[in-house]
Amino acid sequence: MSSISRRHLMIAAGGIATAAVSDRLAFAQAAATDPAAPFKLPPLTYPGNALEPHIDAKTMEIHHDKHHGAYVANLNTFAKDAPQIAQKPIEHVLANLGDVPEAIRTGVRNNLGGHANHTMFWQIMGPGGGKPEGEVLAAIDRDLGGMEKLQTDFNASGARQFGSGWVFVTVTAAGKLAIENRPNQDTPLMDNKRVLFGNDVWEHAYYLTYQNRRPDYLKAWWNTVNWSEIGKRYAAAKAGTLGV
User: Fold this and answer.
1) Which of 117, 148, 161, 173 could pair covalently with 165 via S-S, beta carbons 3.0-4.6 A apart?
2) Cα-based torsion angle of the residue sequence 118, 123, 126, 129 in order, rounded to the nearest 10 degrees
3) Cα separations (Å) of 224 from 95, 110, 119?
4) What is the pTM of this model?
5) What is the pLDDT of residues 67-78, one digit of tens each?
6) CA-based nearest residue to 87, from 39, 29, 40, 43
């Protein structure tokens, strides 16, 4: 076979592969926004470029539309054969994964965990997020040693997370705070805990801007935190109404 023929075959194969990936992404996005599907991709409440320069618009687009969209699409596929996973609150299903059919349990763990984590993530970020105040600030001072120590310890915890995962601040019904890590798309909800806020340290959350500099991303991320929303989550946790 001539080098030209081989080259044409390689180009054609590459085009087929690219088309296949595009088709899968288009299917995932369609499934994530299907009005008849039980799981929905929550829309961002702010423009995709609103968190620049700390998180760039392209990262937000890929992270929200593609990554989170794929988790939602996968869940809707699982729900066709196991509709019960969509009939109870997300936090209840995650705290009772043993009740999920074994054949899809790992898939539900990964995708429902990812859906819960990202739903929280988009909510607790936003432009002009202000500063912690009131009961949240008092809890940070009491339980985590103040804002400066919280940021130092939270960033260090996120930097130490091996591979992919998350760093969270959890909150009890009494309002007590703690810093916790989880691998992959696991979440404190799986231990029947509640999340006040958390940061995604998977590489897809930061690599376009920060490459391998995860500590730089962790430090910059604080500029995107919406303390008003976190205050609402804190109040909901104490009222016993905080979900994901």
Assistant:
1) 161
2) -130
3) 29, 26, 16
4) 0.85
5) 999 999 999 999
6) 39
